[in-house]
Amino acid sequence: MNRFYFILLIIQLGFSQQNYHEEWYSADTEHLPQNSVKSIAPDKYGFIWMTTENGLVRFDGSNFKTFNSNTTGNISNRFLYLSGNTIVDSLKTFTEGYADNIIINKRKAIKIKEKYNLTSYDEYENLRFYTNNNTKQKFDLLHSKIKTQNGDYYKIEKDKILLFNKNNKKKTEITHQYKPNTDYFLLNNELIWLNNNGDYSTFDNSEKKNKIFIKKNAKIIYNHLTQQYFVYTDNEIFILKKATNKLYFSLLHQVNIPRQYTIKCLFYDIKSNKLFIGTDNKGLGIISLNKFSILNNFKKVDNNYYSIIPISNENFITAKGEIFSVNQLIADLKLNTNGYQFGIAIDKQKNIWIQNNTTLTCFFKNTNYKTSIKNEFKATIGSIFCDSKNKIWIGFRKEGNMKVFVATINANDPNSKPNYIRNIDKAVNYFAETKDHKILMASPGNLIIYDVIKQKTKKIPCDKNDIRSIFISKDNTIWVCTYSNGFSLFKNNRFYKMPIDNYSYLTSAHCINEDIDDHFWISTNKGLIEVDKKNLLAYYNDKSPVYYHHYDSNNGFLTNEFNGGCQPCSAKLENGYFIYPSLNGLVAFHPKKVNKILPTNNFYINEIELDGKTSYFNDTLFLNRNFNRVKFKIDFPYFGNHDNIYFEAKLDLNKNDKWIHLNDEKEISFTNIPPGVHTLYIRKLKPFSSTYEIEKIIINIPFLFYEKLWFKIFLAIIITSFLIIGIRLRYNFIKKKNDALEQIINERTADLISTVTNLKAAKNNLSQEVLQQKKLIGTISHDIKSPLKFLSITAKHLHEKSLITNDDNIKDNAKIMHESANQLYRFVENLVDYSKIFIEHKNLNELKKESIDSIINDKIKLFKNIAEGNAIVITYNNFAPSQINLNKKITGIIIHNLLDNAIKNTVIGAITIETNLIKNKIYISVEDTGCGMPDEIKNYYLNLQKNFETDKLAIQNYGLGLHMVLELLRLLKGDLKIYSKENEGTKVTIIIDDN
């Protein structure tokens, strides 16, 4: 029997765990000024204060701030104990020999100028301090005054105990027989006396109560500021509590081996569930009492766990075949001792299905899992899942070019063969089932939705989401965890990525569970993260900020690295407990029982470091212009995981200033702040909320005198005055100058009037000259053209008559006279038309639809007889529309001259006239087979076309015809091309616009 109890004890020790996290701070770690901590108490704001023999120390959960002779001007740095009241802002302390009197107010220590009054110190507090530090633990509290937190006090007499108010008026008294070694103390402002044997009584009910068991050789420490009564041994620390009008000692902390240090003072923070231990030579110890349980199989070295699943209301089973409760290992079925742990499922008959490489094994409940059946597959199994219809779903990994399909097995008949779903030919590593019985499958690159009833498949591209698990919450929303892209809400066939925490722990999210308060618990490679689902949905709707609460090894985990990539990747028991697998053990906890240390305390900003020197301010900070750097420090007491603090700051210098995330030091620095009144905003995200707590600081930096408004106004007045005077002087100068200019203008105006008069006369004269020219042209047309025409007709008649005679001289002379008269007539007619054009130049740009055929055919008729006389054949080809926008008179003159030149230079040959319209350009070419144009003449006309200057005209050498053509083309902004070869002919092309 004794051997049985010994084995049971060994088993219990094997299952026992260290349910606390221990941290130590000392002078060796440069946190404390000295290793002897004599007194510990919180202040009104939540900071922890402690006295040492080398300074007074304030602790905010991460930083220690020391107040000593360098900061407060103390004579001595050997502080004794804290006294006063923790509820109101009235803590105080003093140094050895009462050399210095220090008060703690508004989160800082201040030396009072008055010397310490020996009659003002609290004798009871003084006795408690020395009793705590006395290992003999003797009490002599007769005549002691014990103050409550509201100012009343009890007085201990030999035969009675009296209660006075803060004005020293007696309120009541009870009969009481004082006994030495009886301890008197307050618990929740109620006076209690406790004897060494465990008997105790209270002032409100002085009758003897039940006994309290106190271990032999146990020592007592009473924290009079927090009214906490501790009893401790070498291995245990107890705190006195009251419930149902009874007192009892509750175990706070226990170690397996005796402590190697002496406890001097204790403080237990109920909110953070932390025990602060002050020692004589080891500094400060902080014990975090955890609510997370770590489960291991003590018989195995490898406690690396993956898939787990509930097997009953209070128990779960691992993929190794180990059955655990939330406290310990129940049984080891050894179902999968050496295989993979990435998949486990339990069907409706409680049969256990475990995957291992390419094998799926079903262990039968009716034989207590001692018999099994195996299914062998060609591909490695990726995941297994049992749906609501008791069907086992099997996904496979893609290896090489092997084709894989999702398979199912009817769990009602485990002996049935697998059924392959051919329209799902993708690798699957996770399954989930919606309330409408659709199966969701995580596949590389896709989320597959399979409608079991319709047997239809929909594939949604995953983009960057390498899905590791799928979670369907109580409201039927779908969430996916990924390996490297955080986690996302899947809605309306789209993935909505949730924000990552400030430290990017959620980048690799493994698994999600939802508690009764609609909070998600997400496992990662860097601990466990809790978030409010409402907070996430608010982000989805309006991009509100999200608060993430982080738990890590400081909460009792053996490792921060949780495991994923398996199914199921966590378990939720019906008793409310969550289980998560990790690299070292299984983490079990109840969300309601987890001690959440939330950053709910107020934060304060009234301390700065200005160019290396510390100073304090209230709401408004006044800075000189000559500072280099100012650092704002945030006072914020928080004793939880500092990853849960979200501070941001913004200085309103510009409209587009953005919020800056602050680092762990909770401070922000600025340089070169411009003068003026600015507001510094600092905000903290509230726990499990989308709102902020905001504090603002007014920063006032004075302007230099020349930057102030009055100086600018004065300067503006001076400048304005100078401007007015300058403008006036300039006005007078300009007026005088304008008067002189006006005189000059009047004189020049008179000259201009005279000039205009002369110009008008010249204009009249010019008009008379133009009129005379018109009359001259009319006279030429009438008086010259008519005789010339008659002469030409007569010469023609003579020529025709001369052909009858045989006299060759008469024939030749008649022919010459006929040709000369006809040529002279054409020249005069051409010249007259040319002159009319320049006199009536206002009509040059008046274009209208004209028949090009009519113009050219008229000219051909005019030269027909001459051409036939020279044995010339004239051909006309029109490739343009019959109606073209042009000036008929100018075009006729140009064609007349070109055709005339061609006939003159051609004998027994051909002349071809072509017209064309290309891209709003009219092309008219006259090509002959005559003697050709010498290069000298051709170059002359081409150069003249580029630079038409009348003083360079050589009409006497080259005739008037082409000069007229060039001049008319210049007026029409046309172009001329000449192609000629000696003895072969000449082609002249004119190009004019059709618009």
UniProtKB/TrEMBL annotation:
Q: Which residues cross the membrane?
A: 709-727
Database matches in CDD domains: HisKA
| Gene3D superfamilies given in the database record | 1.10.287.130, Histidine kinase-like ATPase, C-terminal domain, Immunoglobulins, YVTN repeat-like/Quinoprotein amine dehydrogenase
Q: InterPro entries of this UniProt entry?
A: HATPase_C_sf, HATPase_dom, His_kinase_dom, HisK_dim/P_dom, HisK_dim/P_sf, Ig-like_fold, Reg_prop, Sig_transdc_His_kin-like_C
Keywords annotated in UniProt: Membrane, Phosphoprotein, Transmembrane, Transmembrane helix
Recorded E.C. number(s)? 2.7.13.3
Keyword Nucleotidyltransferase: yes or no? no
Q: Does the keyword Phosphoprotein apply?
A: yes
Q: What class of enzyme is it?
A: transferase
Q: Which residues form the Histidine kinase domain?
A: 779-995
Q: Which reaction does it catalyse?
A: ATP + protein L-histidine = ADP + protein N-phospho-L-histidine
Q: Which residues lie in coiled coils? A: none
Q: Which SMART domains match?
A: HATPase_c
Family annotation (Pfam families)? HATPase_c, HisKA, Reg_prop
- Indicate what this protein is called per its UniProt record: histidine kinase
From which organism does this entry originate?
A: Flavobacterium celericrescens
